Amino acid sequence: MASGAAGAGSGDLTVSLNSPPAAHDVNAKACGRHADGETMTIRTYLGATLASAMLFSSAFADISAGDTIIVTATRNEMPLEDAIVPVRVITRDDIELSLATDLSELLRFEAGIDIGRNGGPGQATSVFMRGTESNHTLVLVDGVRINPGTIGGAAFQHIAPEVIERVEIVKGARSSLFGTDAIGGVINIITRKADESYVDLGAGAGSFDTRSGHVSAGLRGDKGEFGATVNWQQTDGFPPRVDSDIDRGYDNTSANIYGATTFGANRLSARHWRAEGNVEYLDFFLAPVDQDYENNATALQLDTELSERGTSKLIVSHMTDRIEQNQVPDFVESTRVSLDWQYSHAFENHTLTGGVYLVDENAQALSFGSGFDEDTDVRAVFVQDQMTFERQRAFVAVRVTDHETFGNETTWNAEYAFDLTDSWTLSAGLGRAFRAPDATDRFGFGGNVDLDPELSDSGTIGLRYTGGSRHRVELEYYVNDIEDLIEFDLATFTLQNIAEAEIRGAQLGYEYRGDAFTFRTELVSQSADNAVTGERLLRRAEESATLSYIQNIGEHRVGISILASGDRVDFGGTELDSYVVTNLTGQLSLGERWQLNARIENLFDEDYETAASFRMQERSGFVELKYGWK
Q1: 3-class SS at 110?
Q2: Number of separate domains in the chain
Q3: DSSP-assigned letter for residue 120
Q4: Shortest CA distance to 53 belongs to which of 425, 383, 470, 621?
Q5: Is residue 1 part of a domain?
């Protein structure tokens, strides 16, 4: 691993190198409980939030919100309303109003997702979904896995929202569909496509001497389409550490190119996403250093209608995640070539799908004069069935993975939903998932070649109410028991399968769509503990709430987003206080094609940390002038 790699594709890489050896992996556990006063603050906020939602939304009549089509929940296209598992979709409209600078800024206002960030723009960012570890969330770009084979999770901090059409978030185990890492859930980033001919230009500036610009355009015809997006961002940043006043900057150039053509019963598409730039940060001794990074995913996809009811999908892809230190020759690099094929056949009441998944992966690293260069092959077959019988829906899936290092693992999902009435739906699900230790777990600092995969058994039960097309209420209780959790063992100074995690949680969500506004709030209460010691898992809040309100004023829009997070613990038993962060955004129409967008980040200037000793963004502003044509 690269020394001090603050901007790594791994969300935890900075932690492992800028912290004492005992903090090598974010799986390490520490003691800590929340203070009663802080807990009451969060709980009071949760109750007031839901009460206010019910109060002001009840006076409006029903209208249709339209159907949203998703692909991640079952690997096949389906209406969002038919999904048994909880799925959240962040749309292009949501992205444009947010003026977020990276993917993690979009995700942090989603309930059940905790963000741990080591400072400002471009700094290492970890995502914890439903209490699981940061490397237990699988991240896809148009269905292509981008989690590196070196360490940790995907590089959320380098994924520019301007290249994204929508984000599909599936909460819960999904290893039966996608293999390793999908213990906590799956985040699928769908990049922008040329669904219609368009031109989109924008330039912006803001606090910390931030500058940005983007160009996006697409053409669509009878036989195909082509589109491209280029986004550039540069900032001088702010001091990432609370014990330093040295600003550290960041720059990112992202591009996404897409093309597709139709011939006969076939549709051939190609796409390439790339992000590259430089991250400045502070090492363990607060010395200013920097590194270059590159993340990319390229895919060729062939969709074929083999019959009236049978369809084939073949994806061949290549992925790269690379970081190079500029002060020393250290680096980490992960490359992956994969083939993912599935065939689906629709019968009268169910759709049967089966397929194969083949991967050749290489992971390399050099750190402090030592490193590794490891190749890994993975082969998998899977079969699944989606069934619908009047008021009942069911989904079952089984996957057998042959991992070159760890042998065979069988994962599965079984889910069932029953429509009690036209408005009420009861659902339940069980699943088994796994995560294979990566190359850094085995050969990096404190690595152990004898590690076993982490195994997860999870279950959910949910109740959903849909009142017409305006009101939507969802309640879900979830459990997740993870065996052979990988931790750093101080006795042997290596990683070991010495722990178990026990996660219990409940989530309540309410959404209302009015003629001129949309309101959504979600409340989460969960415990994520080491089942052996009883200590809390790191960087995860036990209570959290999110609220978003979007008001349409003619052709203009104003939005407010609020995140209330309970306290959390970090390495060494450090307790991080609870906090409430509020963002204010707006879109001002300047005519048919021009628009002025603005955001105030951290409106009330909350002083908070999501990772111990790392400063989060103070109150700041950003404006963008945009031109659009369709």
Answers
A1: coil
A2: 1
A3: S
A4: 470
A5: no
Q: Give, as one character, the DSSP assignment of residue 12.
A: T
* CATH value at residue 117: 2.40.170.20
Looking up tokens 């290492």, which residue turns up? 124
Q: What is the pTM of this model?
A: 0.91
Residue position matching structure tokens 């807990």: 39
Q: Are 277 and 320 in contact (CB under 8 A)?
A: no
CB atoms within 10 A of CB 450: 10
Residue 421 pLDDT greater than 60, yes or no = yes
- Hey, which residues does 40 pair with through a beta bridge? none
Give the count of beta carbons closer than 10 Å to the beta carbon of residue 367: 23
Q: How far is CA 498 from the centre of its chain?
A: 27
Whose structure tokens read 């996660």?
503
Q: Report the pLDDT value the prediction gives residue 572, as an integer from 0 to 100.
A: 84
| Strand order across the 137-141 sheet | 87-90, 164-171, 185-191, 137-141, 144-145
CB atoms within 10 A of CB 552: 14
Q: Give the bridge partners for 269, in sequence order.
A: 260, 301
The answer to which of 29-43, 82-96, 190-204, 392-406 has the lowest mean pLDDT is 29-43
Tell me if residue 51 falls in helix, strand or coil.
helix
Is residue 293 in a domain? yes
Give me the pLDDT at residue 258, please.
97
- Comparing C-alpha atoms, which of 268, 277, 349 is closest to residue 313? 268
551 DSSP β-pair partners: 517, 558
* 154 phi, psi to nearest 5 deg: -70, 165
- Separation of alpha carbons 2 and 17, rounded Å: 8
Query: Coil, strand, or helix at residue 244?
Result: coil
Q: What is the Cα–Cα distance from 472 to 536, expressed in whole angstroms?
A: 33
- Nearest Cα neighbor of 127 from 68, 179, 167 is 167
Q: Report the half-sphere exposure of 494 (CA within 13 A, side-chain side).
A: 10
Rounded CA gap, 509 and 50, in Å? 9
pLDDT tens for each residue of 4-61: 333 333 334 333 333 332 333 333 333 332 333 344 345 554 454 444 444 443 333 3
Residue 556 tokens read as 């203009």
Does residue 91 belong to any structural domain of this protein? yes
Q: Considering the chain, what is the average pLDDT of its residues?
A: 89
- Give me the domain span that covers residue 185: 13-629
Which amino acid does the sequence have at 538?
Answer: L
**One-letter identity of residue 333:** E
Spatial contact of 525 and 542, defined as CB atoms under 8 Å apart:
yes
Q: Could you say which DSSP state residue 615 is in?
A: P
The terminus-to-terminus CA distance of the chain in angstroms comes to 46
Non-local CB neighbours of 523 within 8 Å, separated by 6+ positions:
46, 49, 50, 111, 507, 508, 509, 544, 545
Task: Give domain status of residue 2, yes or no.
Answer: no
Dihedral of the CA atoms 318, 324, 329, 331 (nearest 10)? -50
In this structure, the number of other CB atoms found within 10 A of the CB of residue 346 comes to 16
Give the other-Cβ count within 10 Å of 332's Cβ: 32
Strand pairing partners for 167?
90, 189
Q: What pLDDT is attached to residue 367?
A: 86
Rg (CA), the chain: 23
